[in-house]
Task: inverse folding
């Protein structure tokens, strides 16, 4: 048991996670399949209690992932970027808080940030360079997948249409969050939310256009670019959730009529 504990909490980097590796592709396929399954069952009234329990489970999965990060950074004293100031960790905390205490502006921000942050991190970003089954590898995927499913379930069972008010709420809190983190980064020379330095994908077109050099020439260039990307991500997530909310209501109405006809 002691050797297993040392294995899952080791501090020496030993494996760079390769996006679109066989393991990552398999994870993405399962992630997308479950996402589609949950959404397609959105209108099934008979399964609402089950999905409510799934949402609660996802909330505690996120809390568990946050606890792992806390243990890794503060108890073991390992790693860097120990504060929960990256967007996904902020969104994960917000979606948990609004499960127990509903404040609509915070919930709108949490749902949008969890949707675009969870999907992009699961499919395109990468965890810390530790080989499986390191605790940070577990925390990374359980948190991002859990927050995506929690946000999805929150949307399809909220019985309301997502509209401009939700976008305004999300964008305001997103902007305040970004500005606060950027100021902390500049003051403390941190790089939370990648406002001071970002590594673009290694693609020939990007190299030829010298995008890395231009993007990282100054934090006052990187910061506004990243702020724009976060704002766009919020809008894209809002547009997607707007479509999902309408589709979910249609599916629920259709299934309710079908069930009534079977009586």
Result:
């Amino acid at each position: 048991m002691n050797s297993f504990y040392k294995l899952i909490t080791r501090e020496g980097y030993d494996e760079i996670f390769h996006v679109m590796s066989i393991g990552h592709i398999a994870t993405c396929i399962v992630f997308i399949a479950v996402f589609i399954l949950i959404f397609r069952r959105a209108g099934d009234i008979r399964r609402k209690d089950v999905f409510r329990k799934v949402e609660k489970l996802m909330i505690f999965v996120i809390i568990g992932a946050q606890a792992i990060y806390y243990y890794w950074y503060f108890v073991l004293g390992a790693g860097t970027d120990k504060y929960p100031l990256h967007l996904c960790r902020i969104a994960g905390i917000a979606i948990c808080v609004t499960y127990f205490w509903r404040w609509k502006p915070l919930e709108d921000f949490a749902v949008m940030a969890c949707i675009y942050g969870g999907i992009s991190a699961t499919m395109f970003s990468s965890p810390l360079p530790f080989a499986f089954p390191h605790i940070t590898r577990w925390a990374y995927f359980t948190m991002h997948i859990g927050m995506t499913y929690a946000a999805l379930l929150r949307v399809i069972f909220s019985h309301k249409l997502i509209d401009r008010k939700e976008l305004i709420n999300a964008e305001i809190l997103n902007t305040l969050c970004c500005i606060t983190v950027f100021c902390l980064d500049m003051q403390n020379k941190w790089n939370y939310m990648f406002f001071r330095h970002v590594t673009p994908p290694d693609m020939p077109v990007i190299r030829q256009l010298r995008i890395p050099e231009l993007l990282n020439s100054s934090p006052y260039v990187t910061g506004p670019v990243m702020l724009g990307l976060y704002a766009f991500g919020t809008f894209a997530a809002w547009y997607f959730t707007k479509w999902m909310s309408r589709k979910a209501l249609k599916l629920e109405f259709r299934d309710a009529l079908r069930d009534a006809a079977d009586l």
